[in-house]
Amino acid sequence: MSKPAINSAGAIPMSASKSRALSGRLRAPGDKSISHRSLLIGALTVGRTEIEGLLEGEDVIATAKAVRAMGASVSREAEGRWRVNGLGVGSLLAPREVLDFGNAGTGSRLAMGVVAGHPFEAVFDGDASLRKRPMRRILDPLMQMGAETVEQAEGGRLPLRLRGAREVIPITYETPVASAQIKSAVLLCGLSADGETTVIEKEATRDHTERMLAHFGAKVSVTPHGEHGRKITLRGRPELVPQKIVVPSDISSAAFPLVAALIVPGSDIVLENVLLNPLRAGLIETLREMGANIEEVNRRDDAGEAIADLRVRASALKGVDVPAARAPSMIDEYIVLAVASSFANGETRMRGLSELRVKESDRLAATAAGLKANGVDCMVEGDDLIVRGKSQAKGGGIVETHMDHRLAMAFLVMGLASEKPVTVDDGAFIATSFPGFVENMKRLNAEISA
Ligand code: S3P
Question: What is the average pLDDT across 295-302?
């Protein structure tokens, strides 16, 4: 494998061009959400947790380092096979070094929940993208639980020093925005409370934290709340029992080859072992409404999560209206859905995307800019993204990726079916969530060069 060219700014520009039919099988790397959680929750059990299929992307490696810095032992046994020897709830140790989470929003925010439940201080930092992202939404409930931010950058951003609570106060917290990260931080801190911690969410978000905590032996109850919401209650100070975790493939990563196969004529591929948790599967539902041919093969259950292989064939797509209520179940998939919409006939309106503005980049603005640079008719109206597809995108543009892995992958997918090649200014951040993306796509016949 030849090394990609790094330009003087340290970026790795990449281009994708019209490809012949994609074919073959691909196993996307382990789910990022589950990978972060298995390390953090493993550290809060006494004894050895074994993880298979851990995502070895930069984001998750940063979490592994943070967990190690707090006294748990973390070792890599073989590719994807990791062990965590935890210290137990409330028993982690003060880290001596800065917890540098790089690009990882999830790792940093969930770890804040863990630190808030311990009577010590930790300094959190990250790269230029993470330093821009809002942290108050996490710190607010953690303060109510007794934690304190000793120092912070303007607007409650990183770098910041968090002092955990001596005595965690169990609270009931209604999340102001649909966010699994806020919910998870509160629950992870609530593990140390003497009493019950409750999170109420108006829109149900990915439930990996509550599922995994229950899997490790915590008492967690989940009840419906309103039309789309949930109420999650956790009894504090459980004795978590070490477990074996098998991490399925990340639907948020499988989404890229999936859309590629739909838009490159004649394609027929199989994506193996994909996590189909209903709170993550909004993209598949939407693409099917657009006319996508996605077949679930061998649907099964593994450690309480629904999994299937997906056979995906090139399909004629049509524009649809995507309701705002679906956003939490596909929040990371809108960029690649916008790319799919560019190849659909008619208008696709994606509603209620305000949260996209605070991801690894302002994805609403950056997606619209990337589409326009490639001749796609689109606009942002309030919090909605509207794409007027023409079954064939022109391409030929250079896309600014703003340190955002998913912008890079989505626009490389666009190039595989556009008239002219699509270039992304920097593919380096792909390694945060999908190491081996380019090689894996090339094996399916994708024309990508770095
Ligand atoms: C994640 C939650 C989502 C998502 C992120 C992963 C998680 O963020 O965008 O990539 O693992 O909990 P929000 O909770 O901010 O919506």
Answer: 92
